Amino acid sequence: MLLNHFSISMVITLLVISLTSASAEPKTELLPEPLTLDLALSLIDQQHPDLRYVDADLKSAHSNLQQVLSSNDLTVNLKAAARWIEPSVLATDQSTEDHRLGFFVNKTLYDFGRTSIQVDAASQIIASHKLFYLNAQQQQYITVMKRYFDVVLADLQFYRYNEEMAVTFIRFDRMNSRKKLGQNTEIDVIEKEVEYQRIRRLRTFSENQQRVTRSLLAQALNKPNNLPTTLTRPELDVVSRKLPEIELLQKKVNENNPTLRALRASLVAAKNDIQFARSDSKPVLSGGLETFAYARETRSSDAWRVNITLDVPLWSGERVDAAVAKAKAALYKIEAQLAQQELLAQQQVLELWLGIKTLKTKYDEVLVAMDFSELSLDKNRALYELEVKADLGFSMVRFSEAERKVAQTKFDIALAWAQLDALSGSLLNKENRILTNK
Q1: Staple partner for 293: which of 101, 156, 157, 316, CB 3.0–4.6 Å?
Q2: What is the mean pLDDT of the chain?
Q3: Which domain holds residue 56?
């Protein structure tokens, strides 16, 4: 009876432990099934390492501003000193304990604009890093788009080679059967087998790419252990989007590009740094209050002191000039970076603008090619049903390949538009997001 009671207790204990450990394990949030492009873009994680890396600079800029704002704050200190002395024979008080306690309050009253210059510079740095963070968010948005498209294209590629491998295997098998009947030679069979093995390799590679692209998409969504299974093919409304004149686009990008705006804010901060370096020769007005307690008082022991101090630098050697020269060098570097990025942005706009025009022409081409392959497939299917044609496998392969090219061209147009919108800083605005026909 005791043994049975012990066994029941052990079972209950083990159940409690297992349930506790199971509840303690972190639950992995599963991706929606099927996953759509709109859902994927809405699942972008702001804790992704790429975004956290940029956000760290923004947090550092905020802390720098806080440090500047607090640089002239009131300071309160308590200073205690325990001392033992051998007093002079002339001293009235011959005690050896000379302990002291001091209370100090200090405050910078006026620094002739030095702090305000630092505050302006720190505020501009925050504005700069906010724009860099916006750019990082846009790049993450584009990355998720591209990774999503890569998965869809990998699936289409796999379906295409899967069909072709089935067709080539049937032809190889038929050739091998006819060889046994003496209707084909050994070389005919090997030729078909070579073709079958080539397609089999491409099919295996495309199957592997399905896993690789899903892994990259999961990483872009900051869910590396949660690979999506089923993705819907987006029907993108981008081909009909009107392309503005190149001059209008370049002007818009020059005014609104996040990187250019961030560098311009950094430029203002650098100019403030030069002013701050020059202000090192300006005076500082400060005030203080001090109170003291003594274990051994003398004639020079003050109970309290109040002071106002004006500190006027008269000569600092070459330190101010050196600091100004260093700040100017930083300014020149930012000016050069800004000029580089302006040229790069203009060139990127031109290439994307021309690229979209080319892709629209290509889309017309692949669309006609898909229509042709679809009509050819219908024709061959009719012949197959009338038993005039032995199979219609390669017609299906050609249609699958044409369908994949149409999808890839449309995806390329969507990515080009997304990059153009990102250059103008408007990708994350609702009116400029890539729209899908659900």
Answers
A1: 101
A2: 87
A3: 28-88+95-432
Residue 6 lies in a domain: no
Is residue 21 one of the residues assigned to a domain? Answer: no
The residue type at 341: Q
- Confirm whether 99 is domain-assigned: yes
The reply to whether 9 falls in a domain is: no
pLDDT at residue 98 above 90?
no
Spatial distance between the Cα atoms of 333 and 341, rounded to a whole number of angstroms: 12
Tokens of 51: 């975004």
| CA 337 – CA 150 distance, rounded (Å) | 33
Quote the number of domains for the chain.
1
Average pLDDT over residues 373-386: 70
Question: Could you tell me the CATH number of the domain that includes residue 192?
Answer: 1.20.1600.10
Nearest Cα neighbor of 213 from 159, 145, 139 is 145
Does residue 27 surpass a pLDDT of 60? Answer: no
* pLDDT per residue as tens digits for the range 156-214: 999 999 998 988 888 888 887 777 777 777 887 888 889 989 999 999 999 999 999 99
How many CA atoms, within 13 angstroms, populate the side-chain half-sphere of residue 53? 7
Q: Are 121 and 276 in contact (CB under 8 A)?
A: yes
> Smallest Cα–Cα separation from 331: which of 274, 291, 279, 384?
274
Three-state secondary structure string covering 84-145: ECCCCCCCCCCCCECCEEEEEEEEEEECCCHHHHHHHHHHHHHHHHHHHHHHHHHHHHHHHH
The span from the CA of 231 to the CA of 433, in Å, is: 20
Secondary structure of residue 268 in the 3-state scheme: helix
